[in-house]
Amino acid sequence: MLTMWFRLLITGWFAATIWAGETDRVKFLNGSFEDEPSDATVPHGWWGCAPYTTPDILPGYWGVNLPPSEGHTYVGLITRENGSFESIGQRLSRELMKGVCYSFLVDLAHSNMYASYNEVIQLRIWLGNKRCGENQIIFHSPFIENKKWQTFEITFTPEQNYEYVVIEAYAGGKNKMKKGNILIDNLSEIINCSRA
């Protein structure tokens, strides 16, 4: 009898540990941007945010042939000479809590050939409390010049509770009128820093 109770206790503890670990993770829906390669198409699980957002699911279009860092496809965002830019967003799997330290990874690259959108630009990532909301910036990359994938770790603490994210191509610097591109792949799960 004691052995059975002991087994139940251990099983319950193990299940609670796994459940607690899972609740510390916040997932992106389709963080690897898997979809059918296509131009002017928002990847499954994401929506366009900025006006004129027509991202591309790559490789295979506009002369971009870099293999993905993970999976079969990735997304490309551009900035334009008229000052417009592309951004995509989604609702996260659960709310990010105010004052909690979080961390995740993203792979970024630049293509020398992207139709005529060949200049180097930056990436910004925002948190929001509504669809396409930009309330708190949590990442502002350097100019991405690398032609191969580079992994960036993003660590942040929300200033309030948020459940939306926006990923934005950003021209950067004083010249906002540039035809640039940035390639994005392999968003990891968001984990609690204090338990990493």
- How far apart are the termini? 38 Å
What does the main sheet amount to? 7 strands, mixed
Class based on secondary structure composition and strand pairing: mainly beta
**CA-based shape:** globular
What is the overall number of helices? Answer: 1
- What is the helix/strand order? HEEEEEEEEEEEE
Mean pLDDT: 89
Low-confidence stretches: 6-22
Task: Describe what you observe in this structure.
The protein is mainly β and 196 residues long. The chain has one helix and twelve strands. It has one helix at residues 2-23, and strands at 47-48, 56-58, 74-79, 87-96, 102-109, 119-120, 122-128, 136-140, 150-156, 162-170, 180-185, 191-192. Strands 2, 3, 5, 6, 9, 11 and 12 form a seven-stranded mixed sheet that branches. Strand 7 and strand 8 (136-140) form a beta hairpin.
Provide tags for this entry.
196 residues, mainly beta, seven-stranded mixed beta sheet, five-stranded antiparallel beta sheet, globular
Short structural summary:
The chain is mainly beta.
Helices and strands, with pairings:
Elements: H1 2-23, E1 47-48, E2 56-58, E3 74-79, E4 87-96, E5 102-109, E6 119-120, E7 122-128, E8 136-140, E9 150-156, E10 162-170, E11 180-185, E12 191-192
Parallel strand pairs: 6-11
Antiparallel strand pairs: 1-4, 2-3, 3-11, 4-10, 5-9, 5-11, 5-12, 7-8, 7-10
